[in-house]
Specification:
Helix 6 packs across helix 7, helix 10 runs antiparallel to helix 11 and helix 26 packs across helix 28. The longest helix has 32 residues. The chain is α+β, with helices and mostly antiparallel strands. The strands form seven sheets. Strands 6, 7, 8, 9, 10, 11, 12, 13, 16, 17, 18, 19 and 20 form a 13-stranded mixed beta sheet that branches. Strands 5-1-2-3-4-21 form a six-stranded mixed beta sheet. Strands 24-25-23-22-32-31 form a six-stranded mixed beta sheet. It is found in: Cytoplasm. GO terms for molecular function: phosphatidylinositol-3,5-bisphosphate 5-phosphatase activity; phosphatidylinositol-4,5-bisphosphate 5-phosphatase activity.
Length: 1331
């Protein structure tokens, strides 16, 4: 922030500067696209019409709702393509200006009907300067530009309430109201957003109060927007989500372009205080100071006066407003004070009526039914602001208002926050209330001036709540850390507001605004009083005038007119003219509330996206989404780690100050550091001020500032060599007696960002700050680190209270974006935790004299609580080697010799959590000016560092490559006539659970280059003796109505399909088991023989594995790929069978029996390399024919006669056998391991020897299987077996011509799984290649 900035840029009423403006452009061909362009970048949007049109005309349904809704909105969300890019390479050459005037950002996107509109700010004026560099503009005009249609480009938005302009000037020459054919769908929204009640800023986050955003004005974080006050949240959310997917460099460029705008509703105005009227004089500059009021109206329960009353089930109340008073002085001081107003938080309604003050109040829910929502409302307030003091201004004489007061009182009494606990009075509760009947108190002769008497009811809370105060630090190092520059001055938080007043009347308008004016003045007076300053009367007059304007603005929003009683607020007295104005305002309110508020409410709901069927616009960026995923995968290429050192120390000062001038180097610069200079120094103090009843409700920053200077002096003396860095105070925080100061080396400031502070009270049930915690978090490079210093409950036996204090702090302390302590990679707790040693005084002192640290530590309360998991779970503490640090006689090493005789204890501790932290030392220092000894620890922290340049380079490479791959299919697509938007965005699924519809480029059945496959798994049978198969009686048409079950359980010994799996795992196969069973079991007609083998009739080389045409099987061109394994239904040695592992056959010089675990395969004969045969299902034992005992001695014996007839059979592996009781195990290269003959006789009948299959038989059998089916073992016709010998002979001699098919012969029905030694079998598998 630059104080020397020209004052001309701070004038109010002028339009925003040119660097905050942009231009809106349009391109009509080939697709309509709209761009928001700055000199360096452009945000381009293009609507995707195909999907939305398909949804609209009924050809495509959408997922969100299957039934149509009666509204003007589509059921499906409108989709748009978006691109953010630099304006290089004539990116916008085909665009033309859509409007001649500049725009000042966009409020977002909204869909109405089938049209999508972009809302842009076309008129704005500056109304406030919070401090130099932080300005606020008021929206005075917006326009909605349609992304998908040109029908509304020339439609003039007309304000029917504007009676000052001539109709001809509005409609143009010769154009009357009746001649306008099209009314803009966004006309009402346009009037609402342009009525002067909306404000925005492109310099800072206007949705958060000053305390909840970074102290430096240059910081601006879109991610930290408070959606409670962000009125364009619904419209801007798609663009914010798109921004979050961008890379850091592009995200920063988008933020710098000021295209995205955050809008609040309420009031904002500054008064430029001349130096003569300024309460704080600055001798350095002649710049003026600024007094500003910002009111933020919540959008959670937004609405007009009689349409939004009371509370909802989420704890949101109507007309909830946060009002912040800020003051900036050129002397480097920033003050802020916030208070809130809101409707009575119970469920109630009030109908509009034509008689003033006669509208009946109706309670819609009982007190007990209201309590959950009531508790949530105040829990949210306590989370955001701290303690809450309710100021209820309702009348005690009006029946309706008294009923609300009774319910309000009941809710407060039963709210957990109102219970002080610990025997304290209600003054120490987090929730207090003051009932102040405004009308009764101001009836006297003094009139509204009597309202100042409320000060005595609330002054104690006002002192305890304090205020926010930040000062410019006197540290201003340059890059070398040695000199000062006014342009690099930083703000350091001195004090934080720790509570809030919640004021209400019936409407929270007139009475509320007057009382809030008084509270604001009390806070400013307290701020000036602490600095021994005072303000002239002109200052207070301007302060009152600003609050009167604030009341008028909020009243117009909620009730339609300005506030009543504003004459007194503005001038301090009530005049006759003011009374007449109040009567006129009351009459106008009746008109608006009865005749205009319903339409206004509908428009508000449309703006906030709350109408039935309204869906937000979906933005799709095909390239950025891909780049983000690739960068995540390649993060190791641009990420590295670095080790830094952190010094952490804690010291309970016992409220003493005489140690400020002592040498602190034994503590701050211990010998363990050696030559190491830590990058971060975190110092925690407790009892920095004496904790007396006057101090525990207020925080005085003076003492903290003295200790900060003492620490700085010590560090400067220690690190004074030329090669040392100077330390600068990064941030400090204070909670009454607890204080935390973070110093960092000047050379590492560029690595530190997102510095935030927070406090949490635990004293007196959270009301007082004598106990509690102060926390500061920061990001060092890409590693979030959190420091917490705490002072927990005292007392020897109060370890349960200490555990509760820890839990309260750990759960309740929150930073920005609702980030907690646990949301950090590294967390360090340090402070006076007050855990004691559970031994008697004499025993403990004796162990101390013996220096028996181990015995003392065994009885340490903190150690025992951590072991039991009752406190500081997942935190670590190294071995303690120093003596207890509490309690000493002042100035000596003797433990407490007073009458209280405190037992020595390690009350001062340092704990850590985080895998990247390594503790190097842990010790105490011999400083004797307090009754505690200071404790310190040195950590080595491994931080993650991202090389932004390399990351950006990789990102750009991925981006450019992806852009080439997709052919430029982005929002700025120039040759888009050849592409459909759905190729990039995709259709919606017509029903939940189904894949989206396909397009020319995207096919759901070929995802990732793989064909679709069934993932259905048969259910497991209850009895292991059964197995589950597809029901053979199920009809072939899956959509036919049937009572048949899909699956049936059959005994394993009787299953006709027990020899093969019921579900194939191969993507090449399709086995229709139910059809096979149905065709073989139920049909008795003989099948016709297939025609004779003819290679020319085989299918083309697509879709089927080719069978070699060469007569010899040993000279194939190349092997086809081996078939995928088939799942087995049996088990081997008691374990479920899995996909068989391929084992190549072992070639031997002489024929030898092959392992019985594999079968003959054509592939193994065709391949030049030895390939393993595919696994083949075993035949069920109950289907095998009886055999002689001799034939059962080996499962792989081949008769000599068979070898002589076909020598190739001697080297073929035998077919496997399947036993129903015990499966055989085969080891390649070894004989089969068989069960004993007795087991065979008991479990299965003897089986004949298996016969190998020749290539010819497999080839001919392959013809027998229909296309797409799988041949099975044994599924061969007897007549075809009889012809196997002659066919095999013909194949081995020459390539046969296409023979004539044999004449059909009638055969008897045979068992399909029967076996025969004389004939050839069908091939064990037949595969399909994916086309």
């Amino acid at each position: 922030m630059d104080p020397s900035q020209p004052s001309s840029s701070l004038w109010t009423g002028q339009a925003p500067s040119s660097e905050k403006s942009s231009q809106i452009l349009i391109r009509e061909y080939p697709h309509r696209a709209i761009a928001i362009a700055t000199p360096s970048h452009a945000l381009i949007l293009r609507h995707s019409s195909t999907t939305s049109d398909a949804i609209a005309n009924g050809t495509l349904a959408s997922v969100p709702s299957a039934r149509p809704r009666a509204s003007s909105f589509d059921n499906g969300a409108a989709k748009c393509m978006v691109e953010f890019s630099t304006t290089r390479n004539n990116l916008l050459a085909d665009y033309r200006p859509l409007t001649p005037r500049p725009i000042y950002g966009t409020l977002g996107l909204i869909s109405i009907g089938r049209d999508v509109f972009l809302c842009a700010i076309t008129q704005a004026s500056r109304v406030a300067t919070v401090r130099p560099g932080e300005t606020v503009e008021r929206i005075e005009g917006v326009q909605f530009f349609c992304l998908n249609s040109a029908d509304y480009d020339d439609v003039v938005a007309i304000d029917p309430y504007d009676l000052d302009d001539d109709a001809s000037s509005v409609y143009g020459p010769g154009l009357g109201r009746r001649d306008v054919a099209v009314e803009h769908p966004c006309l009402e929204l346009q009037k609402l957003l342009g009525n002067g009640t909306f404000y925005y800023s492109t310099d800072f986050d206007v949705t958060n109060r000053m305390q909840d955003r970074p102290a430096d004005a240059i910081a601006f974080d879109i991610d930290n927007f408070d959606e409670s006050f962000l009125w364009n949240s619904y419209m801007i959310q798609p663009l914010v989500e798109f921004r979050s997917r961008l890379q850091q460099q592009e995200r920063n460029a988008l933020d710098a372009s000021r295209i995205l705008t955050s809008a609040i509703r309420g009031f904002c105005k500054s008064w430029t205080v001349p130096q003569a009227s300024a309460p704080l004089r600055s001798a350095k500059t002649g710049l003026p100071s600024y007094l500003t009021i910002i009111s933020r109206l919540s959008c959670r329960r937004a609405g007009t006066r009689f349409n939004a009353r009371g509370i909802d089930d989420d704890g949101n109340v109507a007309n909830f407003v946060e009002t912040e008073t800020t003051y900036w002085s050129p002397s480097g001081v920033v003050f802020s004070y916030a208070q809130v107003r809101g409707s009575v938080p119970v469920f109630w309604e009030q109908a509009a009526g034509l008689l003033p003050n006669q509208q009946k109040i109706t309670i819609t829910r009982s007190a007990d039914g209201t309590q959950p929502a009531f508790d949530k409302h105040f829990a949210d307030l306590e989370q955001a602001y701290g303690a809450v003091h309710v100021v209820n201004l309702l009348s005690a004489t009006k029946p309706g208002e008294y009923e609300l007061t009774s319910l309000y009182r009941h809710g407060i009494q039963h709210c957990p926050l109102s219970r002080p606990g610990g025997g304290h009075s209600r003054d120490h509760a987090l929730l207090r209330d003051t009932e102040y009947d405004f009308h009764a108190e101001t009836k006297g002769p003094q009139g509204y001036e009597s309202a100042n008497q409320i000060r005595r009811y609330i002054e104690n809370s006002a002192d305890g709540f304090a205020y926010y105060l930040a000062q410019e630090s006197d540290e201003a190092p340059d890059s070398n850390g040695r000199s000062s520059s006014p342009r690099s001055r930083r703000y350091v938080v001195v004090l934080q507001q720790e509570g809030v007043f919640r004021t209400n009347c019936l409407d929270c308008l007139d009475r509320t605004n007057l009382i809030q004016t008084i509270i604001s003045r009390m806070a400013v007076e307290s701020f000036l009083g602490h600095r021994a300053e005072g303000a002239p009367s002109d200052f207070w007059s301007r302060h009152a005038s600003l609050w009167a304007d604030n009341g008028d603005a909020l009243s117009k929003i909620y009730a339609g007119t300005g506030a009543l009683k504003s004459s007194f607020t503005r001038h301090g007295k009530m005049s006759i003219a003011g009374a007449i104005a109040d009567v006129r305002k009351s009459a106008t309110r009746l008109y608006y509330n009865n005749f205009a508020d319903k339409a206004r409410q509908n428009t508000i709901d449309m703006l906030l996206g709350r109408l039935v069927g309204q869906a937000p616009v979906v933005l799709f960026d095909p390239i950025s989404d891909y780049v983000a995923g690739e960068l995540q995968r390649r993060s190791q290429e641009f990420s590295s780690t670095e080790k830094i050192h952190i010094w952490v120390g804690t010291f309970n000062l016992n409220g003493r100050t005489h140690g400020i001038d002592e040498d602190l180097s034994p503590w701050l610069c211990p010998p363990e550091l050696g030559a190491v200079q830590p990058e971060i120094i975190a110092v925690g103090f407790q009892e920095i001020v004496e904790l007396n009843p006057q101090q525990i409700m207020n925080s005085d920053p003076t003492r903290k500032q003295l200790w900060e200077k003492a620490i700085k002096r010590t560090l400067d003396r220690r690190y004074n060599r030329p090669d040392n860095d100077r330390y600068v105070l990064l941030r400090s925080g204070q909670l009454v007696g607890a204080a935390l100061c973070i110093f960092v080396k000047a050379s590492v400031l560029h690595n530190i960002k997102n510095v935030e502070g927070s406090v949490k009270k635990t004293g007196m049930s959270g009301m007082a700050g004598n106990k509690g915690a102060v926390a500061i978090r920061l990001d060092y490079a890409n590693t979030p680190i959190c420091f917490v210093t705490a002072h927990l409950a005292a007392g020897f036996t109060n370890y349960d209270e200490r555990n509760k204090d820890y839990a309260t702090i750990d759960r309740g302390l929150r930073f920005q974006r609702n980030r907690g302590i646990g949301d950090h990679d590294s967390v360090i707790w340090f402070g006076d935790f007050n855990y004691r040693i559970g031994l008697g005084l004499e025993t403990a002192k004796e162990l101390v004299r013996k220096r028996d640290v181990e015995r003392l530590y065994e009885n340490d309360q903190l150690n025992l609580q951590m072991v039991a998991g009752l406190a500081f779970r997942f935190y670590s503490e190294p071995r303690i080697t120093f003596m207890p640090t509490y309690k000493f006689d002042i100035g000596s090493d003797e433990y407490d010799s007073s009458e209280k005789a405190r037992i020595p204890a390690w009350t001062d501790r340092i704990l850590r959590k985080g895998g990247n932290l390594r503790q190097l030392s842990y010790n105490s220092a011999p400083l004797r000016f307090s009754d505690h000894r200071p404790v310190y620890s040195i950590f080595e922290c491994t931080v993650s560092i991202v090389d932004e340049r390399l990351r950006d380079k990789i990102s750009r490479e991925i981006y450019d490559r992806r852009k080439i791959d997709v052919g430029g299919d982005t929002a700025n697509l120039a040759a888009a006539e050849e592409s459909e938007d759905e190729d990039l965005i995709g259709y919606d699924a017509i029903e939940p659970g189904l894949p989206p519809a396909s397009s020319d480029r995207q096919k759901w059945w070929l995802e990732n280059g793989r064909m679709a496959r069934s993932a259905i798994v048969p259910p497991k049978p209850e009895n292991p003796a059964y197995q589950t198969i597809l029901n053979p009686k199920r009809p072939a048409n899956p959509y036919a109505q049937t009572d048949e079950a899909d699956w049936v359980n059959v005994p394993r010994s009787e299953s006709r399909l027990s020899s093969f799996s019921s579900m194939s795992t191969s993507p090449y196969e399709h086995v229709n088991h139910s059809m096979l069973l149905a065709s073989t079991a139920s049909s008795t007609a003989p099948r016709k023989l297939p025609p004779a083998y003819d290679p020319s009739t085989l299918p083309a080389k697509v879709g089927r594995m080719q069978i070699s045409e060469e007569p010899s099987t040993t000279h194939a061109e190349g092997p086809p790929p081996p078939p995928p394994p088939r799942r087995q239904t049996g088990s081997v040695n008691g374990t479920p069978a899995t996909a068989a592992t391929y084992q190549p056959p072992q070639k031997k010089p002489t024929p030898s029996p092959a392992p019985s675990s594999s079968s003959a395969s054509l592939v193994s004969q065709q391949s030049s390399k030895p390939k393993g045969p595919p696994p083949v299902a075993r035949k069920p034992a109950h289907l095998t024919a009886p055999a002689s005992p001799a034939s059962s001695t080996s499962s792989t014996v081949i008769p000599d006669a068979a070898v002589q007839r076909d020598p190739s059979r001697a080297q073929l592996p035998g077919l496997p056998r399947r036993s129903t009781a015990l499966a055989q195990t085969s080891i390649p290269g070894h004989d089969s391991i068989r069960p004993s003959p007795s087991n065979e006789r008991d479990t299965a009948p003897p089986q004949p020897p298996k016969r190998a299959i020749s290539s010819a038989s497999v080839a001919r059998a392959g013809r027998g299987a229909p296309s797409g089916a799988v041949g099975l073992i044994g599924l061969a016709d007897q007549e075809r077996r009889a012809q196997s010998a002659s066919a095999r002979k013909a194949l081995t001699t020459q390539k046969p011509p296409a023979p004539a098919p044999p004449p059909p012969r009638k055969v008897q029905a045979v068992d399909l799984l029967d076996d025969d030694d004389a004939g050839a079998q069908i091939g064990s598998w037949e595969a399909l290649k994916p086309s």
